[in-house]
Amino acid sequence: ETGAGRRTLDLGAGSGLLAITAARAGAAHALALEIDPVARIAIELNAAANGVSVTLVETAELPQVDVILAGDIFYDADIARLMLPRLERASAAGADILIGDPFRHFLPLDRLEERARYWVPDFGSGEHSVPAAVFALRS
User: Fold this and answer.
1) How many whole angstroms separate alpha carbon 19 and alpha carbon 31?
2) Please, which residues have CB within 8 angstroms of residue 80's CB and are 6 or more apart in sequence?
3) Torsions phi, psi of 125, nearest 5?
4) Kind and range of the H or E element at 43?
5) Quick check: 13 and 34 in contact, CB under 8 A?
6) CA dist 16 to 21, 129, 138, Å?
7) Beta strands 29-33 and 7-11: pairing type?
8) What is the spatial distance between Cα 22 and Cα 100, in angstroms, rounded to a whole number?
9) pTM value?
10) What is d(CA 92, CA 27) in angstroms, rounded to the nearest whole number?
11) CA-based angle 31:32:33, to the nearest 5?
12) 18, 48, 88, 91: which has the fewest Cβ within 10 Å?
């Protein structure tokens, strides 16, 4: 519901799940930023399969939006150093930033407020669950 009626960006979209969910929840405009060309095709196919429109963003710069949804983008030190300042600039410009993460090592917990916690399957082993949470970036 956070994106309902608002321009919402799925950052590092992968399959486009967050953009598709935002579109289905009534986002005014659902965008997906993904640099992987195979993932971009998957986003188009998944959006069509779900009967929604998702606009693919082809720039590395974050577009001006109302909400940014970022799933599991702090998996690497270099990516974290690149993404956090961009998210902070977007927040300063007025965007709400929500991040889903399974408490990866490079997650900037000192900049985040935990909103919800879940236990999710560990995709590495499939045998057990790990904690994951939804965080809001502090302004």
Assistant:
1) 6
2) 73, 74, 106, 107, 108
3) -120, -30
4) helix 37-49
5) yes
6) 8, 23, 25
7) parallel
8) 14
9) 0.93
10) 21
11) 125
12) 48
pLDDT string in tens for the chain (139-residue length): 889 999 999 999 999 999 999 999 999 999 999 999 999 999 999 999 999 999 999 887 899 999 999 999 999 999 999 999 999 999 999 999 999 999 999 999 999 999 999 998 877 666 788 899 999 999 8
Amino acid at 33: L
Tokens in use for 39?
Answer: 């993932």
